[in-house]
Structures are given as C-alpha cells and as structure tokens.
C-alpha cells in the first residue's frame, strides 16, 4: 500500500528537501505551507523544467487561521505520517514580536496536536525541533539535557516540545523529535549565511559577521538530515528524541573564510565584523551517537564538498537569484 505523508512547512528549506526525499521513497506527499509555493529554484522536488512531480499535492493553509480546513483535509486523507517543519524560525527577529513566535510555534500547534491525538490512523508525528532549546552548549550534549532557552524563538520551540512530550506520556501520542545542527545545501533561502556569503562574494561585496563570527556551530548537509529524519520517522519508538549532527564544527568566521578560500576571494577585503545579536548562543554542539548507534546512520557530505555544491547551485541560478531579496521578510 502506498503510504501518505503530510509535510507541514513544505516551503521551508528543510521541508522542501524532505518532500523530495519522501517522493523518492514512493510515498504520496501533501505539502502544506501558509504561503503559496515559492519559486521552483528553492523547491528541489521540482524537475529541471519547473514541473511539479507526480505523487505531490500542495495545500496552502496557515496553522494560525486555517486549522479547521487543514484537519478536515487530514481526516479525509488519513496520512500515516505527519512531519512538522512549520515554524517562525528567525531567532533575532523573535525579540520584536515574541507573541507571534509563541502563537505560531506553540499555541496553534498545540490545538492541532490535541485533535490529532484522537486520530487512530496516525502512525507517527515527527516534531522538527531545534538545539536552541538547550541554550549555549559548549560541549557535545545528549538528548536528555535540560532546556535553558535564551530567546523567544527557543522558548516557543521548547514549549511545543514539552506539550508534545506531555501528550506522549498522557495519551501515548506517537511523537518523535529531531534536533539538527545548522543545516545547509542547495536551494536554501538567500538570507542564510552560506548562500548569502556566496552571493556577496560573487558581487564583489562585503559580508558582515555578527560579533565577528565567533560563535561556534556544527554544519550538516540537508541530504544527511533527510536520511536521518526518514530513519527516525519510520523506525524510532514514540517519545524518543534524536540529535542529528556532523563532525564539521567551526566558527561562523571560519566558515566564511572557507567559502572565501573555495571562491578565491580575499577575505581581508570582503569580511567585516559587526555588533553581536541579542541573546545569541555561543555554541551548539550535539552528540548524535544515539542516532548513529541505533540506526547505523552516518554523514556522507563533508563541509568542503557541501559548500562547493552550494557554490555551483548559486552560479547556475545566478540570473534568478540576483532578482530575489537577500533579506528576511517577516510575515505575522
């Protein structure tokens, strides 16, 4: 039987790649996002001619406003799996309207979860969480680490996670959680550090690093994240949490210097320092040994290989990307 999966937040970078991954597994996929489908250059599941693939349908629905219509459609389709990438995801901007982040990331999803817990057809709900719920983590931490969120974004995601864990314990709701390191790859939004840096360098411009780029992150390719998420969705027991990380750990500044090196750009002329963001955590380091040991998972992309793939994607689509905004535009 061909199984059906709903991917909430299918317009997002990770959500769009997971659509492609699920289609390759032979699943019927319904993508859900509050905005219309974005340009095909950001949707890796479209073919080279910009055609929507067979087995995929798109539903425009906002968790904050269209929950009745969304759950009615879900009841008709009865998907085996629901994977939730949908979220207000910008950390710095969450300080400006914290109530919007809490509503979108915690309150509206809570209403959805309360309806879904009564649905016998649901095999697994995958909550795409974030390591930001832990606050600064200067050493590789495990999945049982206590939450100490330091931004409104992180608070909203921790709230949703705790509500879901509560539902698992009270109702045996079939939820599993993923927390991935900094994800990158082709088709990423242009305001993210890797594509933005590449575009700046190609244009001969400078890139400004908050706080000099001293914060440390682990970077992982989206293909490795999709593979891990699929294993977790189909094989993990309800109530489990998994970290998805890579050995590629470096500061934001060193990341930008690596891009400069690959593009043969003089970093002294094109990389400058700016003020640090409010509440920015110094490091996110995750121990993903549980995932590796339980499901025999490992990364396949090293950072240099992955960055060069993104450079090629940007260059191949530069005539389109140069017309796109490079700044994040907030939508309430």
What is the correct CATH architecture of the largest domain? Answer: 3-Layer(aba) Sandwich
Which value, in Å, is the CA radius of gyration? 19 Å
Low-confidence stretches: none
Main sheet: strand order: 3-2-1-4-5-7-11
Q: How many individual domains?
A: 2
What is the overall pLDDT average? 94
What's the CATH C level of the largest domain? Alpha Beta
Q: What is the terminal separation in angstroms? A: 39 Å
CATH superfamily of the largest domain: NAD(P)-binding Rossmann-like Domain
Order of helices and strands: EHEEHEHEEHEEHEEHEEHHEEHHH
- Strand content bin: 15-25%
Helical residue percent band: 25-40%
Classify the secondary structure makeup into a structural class. alpha/beta
**Number of E-type strands:** 14
Main sheet: strands, sense, barrel: 7 strands, parallel
Helical segment tally? Answer: 11
Overall 3D shape: globular
In CATH terms, what is the fold-level topology of the largest domain?
Rossmann fold
